[in-house]
Amino acid sequence: MKSQRLLALLGAATLAVSLAACAADDTSGSGDAGAADGEIVFGLDEDSTGPGAAYAVIAGKTIRFAIDEINAAGGIDGQQIRVVVGNDESDPTKTPTVVRKLVDDGAQVILLDTGSGAVLQGKSVVKQAGIPAIAPTAVTTSVAEAPDNEFTYMLANGVDQFAEAYCGAMETKGYESIAVLSDASPAIDNINKLIIPILEDCVEVVAEESAPVDAADLTAQAARIKQADPDAILVSSLGGNFEVLAHNTLHQQIPGVLRFSLASIGNQPDSWARTNKGALADVVYMGALDMDNPKTQELEKKLKEANGDDYRLTAYDAQAYDSVYLLKAAIEAAGGADDPVAVRDALDEITGFEASFGQPGFTLSFSPDKHMGADGLCGLVLSGFDEDNEPSGAWEDYQVACESE
Known about the structure:
Blueprint: H1 2-20, E1 25-26, E2 39-46, H2 53-72, E3 80-86, H3 95-104, E4 109-113, H4 116-129, E5 133-135, E6 152-154, H5 159-173, E7 177-183, H6 186-200, E8 204-211, H7 219-228, E9 232-236, H8 240-253, E10 258-261, H9 269-274, E11 283-287, H10 294-307, H11 315-334, H12 340-347, E12 353-354, E13 363-364, E14 381-385, E15 391-394
Helix pairs in contact: 2-11, 3-4, 5-6, 7-8, 11-12
């Protein structure tokens, strides 16, 4: 009996040592507040099953890749990173509970890999906990703005800058009207509240149509848009099945009309094959990848080595990867992760961080008054598709000027 208890204790000890030596991905939370000796705990709010899953899963996979890469190289100042994971399904009503659970499970920094609407509801919880959080794929500018933004950061250019780019493109093309087709998710609702008023300053918005994220038919919405006779159409969506359906329907009912899109469709390779042949040829999406950027080339090489030569790099990958390394840089500058305010202050001092996305030379910087990392408009690349629904690179008709802030 004593020998059995001894074996059980030895087995438990061996398991504990093994877990401490790895970048554990604890999807249910450890239940142990605080980090153990020799480890740093990253919290990950990853929408793996909700409307944001189409991009959050891509980003989440690369977040894990970056953490594994850091751990394999010795960790952060010799400390291994452990991950605790929650899923708010991009549902703003669930986000506060999920973020609190991550904090209870010992998270010292948090990655909010979920919809922008959900991130907005997590800001106050992050502030109350006093824990730095980065939203890798967020494009809603208010994520990084007051109120409650003291501990919340984002990387990408905001949708208000998307709108500026669309307006520049519309002016270049001589277009005077646009229609908007949206999914009815909270994240897109927040995006539209930012983007549509800016569009109204440069063109007439002649129709606004929406449908549930899980809609199976957009024929009626497309018919009303056709009747409004816009010069162009904006598809504002989280991507996934809704965006595939939108482009298939619009291509069939309103062929030849230019469609602008958010970043979603360009960063979801699985969607391209599910879209009818040629349905994306009239789509210009807000991209963020320029393969002339050496940092982008470097990341693509790493991810192809890890995932196979057919892996398609996305902006979500790049933003996720950079988010992890920004946190690493801040934790190193703060002398560890035990003092979250020191980590926050270190983030606020990061300048000129060379990004893995955007045009060559694009950088990210933070300060106490600037929690949106993008330095100027160089993170935006209007991009198109060919007749085979494959990205064709930068759109030749118009690009935003690469101006510094």
